[in-house]
Amino acid sequence: MTPRQRFFDCLQRSPPALFEAALWIAAEHDAQMSPEAVLADFSELQQRVSAGLPMLPVSELAQPLLRRMNDLGFAQDDFTPLRPQVALIHKVLERRRGQPLALGLIALELARRLEIPMVGVNFPGHFLLRVQGADHLLDPCGGRRLYPNDCRDLLQRQYGPNIKLSAEHLLTADPLHMLQRLSRNLRQLHLTNDDYIGALVDAERVLELGNGSASDYLARASLYQRLDCPNAERFDLEHALLLSDDPIQRIRLTERLGHLPPNSVVH
């Protein structure tokens, strides 16, 4: 099977194999990487983390786990411009630097193996973690506790003072949404680094995972434009137009479609 097929096979399991699926995403970009080998090596990290945890009930070990990861060198990568390696899980394991989501996926896999109850939270702009029933969230980049005021400050630092914290921002993320977010992150990272083919691989995966937005179709359309594929660009612009609720965006999409050559049929 191809890495993409193996990726979707992970999602079909019960429960879905979230961490392994993330490794198969990385395998699409690095043919030399073996997810099976990374999974085998992961046991060593698990042992090192476990050895440093305090003797507490598992329900109280989520923050100590994240702090132990930080002690072992895992931290947010602040180098700019960001490169795809901050979201490719095997590279994050090698370098111990990555985006919050990548660090969160590693933490969730460690928590799963150590039977520590922890879930992901699709917080805008900065992936977070939570122990069910707790009155706070946890930052995967070091384990800091975030209470509602901290979450509000984090949100406004990223999106400006006019955005309001809502319950929707604090929802638990299921595996599909985490992997779709990872794919969007990689799409943007590859695009920023002028790897249009790599970005297209991720853009296609985003849409194959379902519930693609107008911006997802528009992102892939822009890649097809750069790669001089007008028929594929038209297909995605038409889908973006159908999904868009923004009148200004709809006008711009219609104008852009009008400048494309007619669909050509190859015989």
UniProtKB/TrEMBL annotation:
Residue span(s) of domain Protein SirB1 N-terminal: 38-183
Pfam families noted in UniProt: TPR_9 (PF13371), Transglut_core2 (PF13369)
Protein family (similarity comment): Belongs to the UPF0162 family.
Protein name, UniProt field: Protein SirB1 N-terminal domain-containing protein
Organism name: Pseudomonas frederiksbergensis
Lineage: Bacteria, Pseudomonadati, Pseudomonadota, Gammaproteobacteria, Pseudomonadales
